[in-house]
Amino acid sequence: MRGGDGAAVTAIAAQGVLTIDLGAIVDNWRLLRDRAQPAECAAVVKADAYGLGASHVAPALAAAGCQTFFVATVDEGIGVREALTGAAATADRTAEPVIYVLNGVPPGGEAEFARWRLRPVLNSLAEIDAWAVAGRAAGRPLPAALHLDTGMSRLGLDEGEQRRLAAAPERLAAIGLTLLISHLACADEPDHPLNTEQSQRFNAAAAMRPACRRSFANSSGVFLGPAYHHQLVRPGAALYGIAPTANRPNPMAGVVTLLGRVLQVREIDTPRTVGYGATHRASGPTRIATVSVGYADGFLRSLSNHGCGFIGGHTVPLVGRVSMDLTTFDVTAVPPERLIAGALIELIGPNRPVDAVAEAAGTIGYEVLTSLGRRYHRIYRGGARAVTC
Ligand SMILES: *Cc1c(COP(=O)(O)O)cnc(C)c1O
């Protein structure tokens, strides 16, 4: 790590330790790929690979055979292109991996896309027209995906725009259309009626361009079955260990382990309260461990009096409010010899899966991961397991 020697060791001892298992991400990608085949399995690495580090994740997946990546913004696309270009594992490829930018082309941004060989997902007629202008200027149709809104009401051509486009097909003449996409609103609820409604709308719209590859499924969509796979699936969350389907066992391997450091342990007697706002009151003699992670690290404040940690074989309740840099746990049940200063407490990991942390915080695993802070000592594991198929 940076700095090497003694100073670094002190820093490690003072901080939380975040371990990201790239091997587990690759295993998860293979599971999704096998599930979706013969469709191709892409990887969504937007928001810095859901907070886990796209410059590590994308090369690991490319080495395992992933050919298509999705990011949200141009800057993310440039970062992933640089990481993939630098990665030795992809150097001997004939075709370099494809990168799609979901949020489309910002006005005037066309040159950056060409320079970094990024493909926009075109979300409106205005973006289509601007991309066609860029293609005419380049003297060749430039590749892009087209997003059809089938029920998210967020991005993509709505039904009116789809009709206008169908009436004026020449608007696409200068565009190298490589993919039609749409996005599911309720894929994690297999019985939700919107899934079949969106599917019907997507199939009807895509039938007008039978030659074009289609992509519909996010992580959860992969588990809705083959009718949702089309030619390319776009999982993100499941790669990072988040359960794809609500109220079902999670088939994905855990990826993230977050350990906090115990800074102090104190015995308190009643009547005493813990933390800001005195929101927790000890009901008897209690042992409190103060841990080196707070909401500034993305350990969400909504975990106050709701979260848990795991230490010395015990699941222990988070008591009081999460502060900026510190969190307190009731460790009365833990044998004192397991609680020396510097001991590690699991905050996310095999005993505290990311979805359980999210539920305690009243949110979703996506937000827990993308909130993970920058102060942690980060360890990447298992990236060298490169097997092509
Ligand atoms: C984020 C995103 C995905 C990936 O979704 P997950 O639920 O994380 O698998 C796929 N497609 C689009 C358009 C997205 O915005």
How does this model look, in words?
Helices cover 30% and strands 21% of the residues. With 389 residues, the chain is an alpha/beta fold. The strands form five sheets. Strands 3-4-5-6-7-8-9 form a seven-stranded parallel beta sheet. Strands 1, 11, 14, 17, 18 and 19 form a six-stranded mixed beta sheet that branches. A hairpin with a 5-residue loop joins strand 12 (273-274) and strand 13 (280-281). The two termini are 33 Å apart. Residues 1-10 and 385-389 have low confidence and may be disordered. The structure holds pyridoxal-5'-phosphate (PLP).
Descriptors:
single chain, 389 residues, alpha/beta, 7-stranded parallel sheet, 6-stranded mixed sheet, 12 helices, 19 strands, 21% strand, elongated, disordered N terminus, disordered C terminus, binds pyridoxal-5'-phosphate
Quick overview of this protein structure:
This protein has 389 residues and is of the alpha/beta class. The protein has helices at residues 5-14, 22-36, 46-50, 54-63, 74-86, 110-115, 125-138, 159-167, 193-206, 219-222, 354-361, 365-371; strands spanning 17-21, 40-41, 43-44, 68-71, 98-101, 119-122, 142-147, 175-181, 214-215, 232-233, 256-268, 273-274, 280-281, 286-291, 308-311, 314-317, 327-330, 344-348, 377-381.
SSE blueprint and pairings:
Layout: H1 5-14, E1 17-21, H2 22-36, E2 40-41, E3 43-44, H3 46-50, H4 54-63, E4 68-71, H5 74-86, E5 98-101, H6 110-115, E6 119-122, H7 125-138, E7 142-147, H8 159-167, E8 175-181, H9 193-206, E9 214-215, H10 219-222, E10 232-233, E11 256-268, E12 273-274, E13 280-281, E14 286-291, E15 308-311, E16 314-317, E17 327-330, E18 344-348, H11 354-361, H12 365-371, E19 377-381
Helix pairs in contact: 2-4, 4-5, 11-12
The chain binds pyridoxal-5'-phosphate.
